[in-house]
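In practice, a research group might receive sequence data for several interacting partners and want a quick structural hypothesis before committing to experiments. The following worked case mirrors that situation: the sequences arrive first, and a predicted assembly follows.
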Amino acid sequence: MGGVVHTTTDFSAPTMAEGIAQVVEVEGNTAWLIPEPGSSCGGCSSAAACGSKGIGTVASRLEKRRFQLVNDAGLSVGERVVVGINENAVLRASVTAYVIPLATLLSAGALAQSVAGNDFVTMGAMLSGLVLGLWLSRIRAARLMERGELAPRFIRRASMGETCNS
Amino acid sequence: MKEYALLIISAALVNNVILARFLGLCSFMGVTTRIDTAVGMGMATTFVITVSSMADWAVETYLLQPYGLGYLRTVTFIMVIAAAVQFTELTVKKVSPPLFQMLGIYLPLITTNCAVLGVAILLVEHKMNFISATLFGFASSVGYSLVMVMFAGLRERLALADIPRLFAGPPNGFIVASLLALAFMGFSGMTA
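A structural hypothesis for the assembly, expressed as tokens:
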């Protein structure tokens, strides 16, 4: 009677979410990068190189998302690199940006509705709650930044032909 | 209070935006290849739908209905949604530029998400008061986010499964989506 072989597959999520970015500027020990967005069409590499940089174009949006890295790896302009952020960073960022303001908005609205029962009062309370929530999320975002939890990290140089979809 | 609890359960689970009303299917298939992108998209959509529900209710109640401009509803709501997305984008950018760098990519996609317009039209059709409209928008978008994250989790696991090549990717995704929709039909028994 043969022994039963138990095979297990590791379904645990990777600890880093990776993406590809291109170095657009190097200033001393700081490199500025623009991310290549993932897309189902596979045209991520051409998006930054297409030359159209009008308002609302993909290129202009990428320009807005410029970020910096400490250039310990000696990166030069035009190089494509794989960068990563902690997998939980997106969750933490989303909670900070959206959940905190929504929670204060809805709490203030529910409180006002139960006390006053008037639509105008509820609207005013919700707006106040939103402003309070945005202030709280600003404080939390500053703390996350101080701890370096929102900053992307250099992982390796991207190989030839490697895309954000591969 | 019970009325609000039922409204939330109904909007989030029984009449789920994606699996019962079949709205927002483009983002449902397009942004659910990874859990982190699904979470980012889901939370951004939750915020925008809630804010635009409030704004759409106010526009409908104080502008469109009193002046008999109901025929402009769809156009007006699209404009309000675009403004809500722009407001969210500017606010996140102002509150924290690093957060905007991380999450800003999801926001433009929400403008063209039919779930946002669908929820706004539904809350007007049901003639809700302000707090009910806000809760309906919030609960609908929580249901949307829940399904997005569940589906992303399933797809991440299915990506590792050994299945025929023809079924890999979107075909398999559609089959899983249909099974999820069948599972969610079970919630409709809760109100019978």
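Before designing any experiment, note the following. The radius of gyration of chain B is 18 Å. The first helix of chain B runs from residue 2 to 14.
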